From TrEMBL:
Keyword Manganese (UniProt): yes
Family affiliation: Belongs to the CRISPR-associated endonuclease Cas1 family.
Function in brief: CRISPR (clustered regularly interspaced short palindromic repeat), is an adaptive immune system that provides protection against mobile genetic elements (viruses, transposable elements and conjugative plasmids). CRISPR clusters contain spacers, sequences complementary to antecedent mobile elements, and target invading nucleic acids. CRISPR clusters are transcribed and processed into CRISPR RNA (crRNA). Acts as a dsDNA endonuclease. Involved in the integration of spacer DNA into the CRISPR cassette.
GO MF entry, a single one: endonuclease activity
Enzyme Commission designation: 3.1.-.-
Name of the protein this chain belongs to: CRISPR-associated endonuclease Cas1
Record keywords: Antiviral defense, DNA-binding, Endonuclease, Hydrolase, Magnesium, Manganese, Metal-binding, Nuclease
Keyword Magnesium attached: yes
Ligand binding (Mn(2+)): 146, 213, 226
Gene3D superfamilies: CRISPR-associated endonuclease Cas1, C-terminal domain, CRISPR-associated endonuclease Cas1, N-terminal domain
Superkingdom classification of source: Bacteria
Record note on quaternary structure: Homodimer, forms a heterotetramer with a Cas2 homodimer.
Cofactor(s) needed by this chain: Mg(2+); Mn(2+)
UniProt organism field: Micromonospora echinofusca
Length: 323
């Protein structure tokens, strides 16, 4: 039976994750479709965005999106994320770029096994401490090293920018109650969490299955974001605090945006997650197969406790076709 309408693109024809725009944020507009482009219409006119170039479309307040636009995003492997104003709050997302559950299964298996979970946690800390051996350290020892590293990082940037630094202190329910540098740190980290969260769901992993952090629905997001704070958000926050900004939240968000505008952090984040969860090949190289829409084919298989996975779509009671 022929299904009416334009068929979706083949997986191999879609742009790879690292070749796409990191994200596009829209608010107070109507989002529709024009051929293979997403359109955003407001009182200023219409903007066309090629759907094949989108990694994540962030839908802010006042957006209305049509079914046709959502179909186009799905066909092109783009992720729709519903967010708060300026992308600060994350509310929900559509189907991820992933067509394989390989990363999700690996994540669940590792986090459920004490030794494997510790192995991944040590690998995360090893990424933060280049050249240091973390293979024999306990979680308590790793946390101690991380705490010392973060305090040293704060002191170095305070000295670099001339900022008076005491400690990381903030009230999550009252942004303005802390000093300027702590406000900037909170705003910068929130942006980083949003970026990492988009990557985590886009490649099909679970935000709540963390290795260092636990018990929160964004535990894995915090795990991965911590890999980049010393390089991205902490220096940005001290720069903004030193600039005398009168709108720290907005200026910090723009500074983080400028810091990650080339999309390199997205590719790096994807590769880091893959390397943490999957056993490297003997050569140690990261294969690109999975990057072609977080790969694999679109095949559903059946698990077997005695050996290889079995093909689905077959009646194992004696018939040939099950569906």
């Amino acid at each position: 039976m022929k299904i009416p309408g334009v068929p979706p693109a083949e997986l191999a024809d879609l742009n790879r994750a690292q070749d796409r725009l990191s994200f596009v944020y829209l608010e107070r507009c109507v989002i529709h479709r024009d051929s293979n482009a997403i359109t955003a219409t407001d009182d200023k006119g219409v903007v066309h965005i090629p759907a094949a170039t989108l990694g994540v479309l962030m839908l802010g307040p006042g957006t209305t999106i049509t079914q046709q636009a959502m179909m186009l995003l799905a066909d092109n492997g783009a992720t729709a994320v519903w967010v708060g104003e300026h992308g600060i709050r994350y509310y929900a997302h559509g189907r991820s770029l992933a067509r394989s559950s390989r990363l999700l299964v690996a994540q669940a298996a590792a986090v459920s096994h004490r030794d494997r979970r510790l192995h991944v946690a040590r690998a995360m800390y090893r990424m933060r401490f280049p050249g240091e051996d973390t293979d024999t350290l306990t979680m308590q020892q790793l946390r101690g090293k991380e705490g010392a590293r973060v305090r040293r990082c704060y002191r170095e940037h305070a000295k670099r920018t001339g900022i008076t630094w005491s400690q990381r202190e903030y009230d999550p329910d009252d942004f303005t109650s802390s000093d300027p540098v702590n406000q900037a740190l909170s705003a910068a980290h929130a942006c980083l969490y949003g970026i990492v969260h988009a990557v985590v769901v886009a490649i099909g992993t679970a935000p709540g299955l963390g290795f260092v952090h636990t018990g929160h629905d964004r535990s894995f997001v915090y795990d991965i974001a911590d890999l980049y704070k010393a390089e991205i958000t902490i220096p940005v926050a001290f720069d903004i605090a030193a600039s005398g900004s009168t709108d720290i939240g907005a200026d910090t968000r723009r500074a983080v945006r400028d810091r990650v505008h080339n999309g390199a952090i997205l590719e790096r984040c994807v590769r880091d997650i893959r390397n943490l969860l999957l056993t490297p090949r003997p050569t140690g190289a990261v294969d690109d197969e999975w990057l072609d829409v977080e790969a694999g084919d679109d095949t559903v298989r059946l698990w077997d406790d005695t050996g290889p996975e079995q093909a689905s779509g077959r009646n194992y009671g004696g018939g040939e076709v099950d569906f």
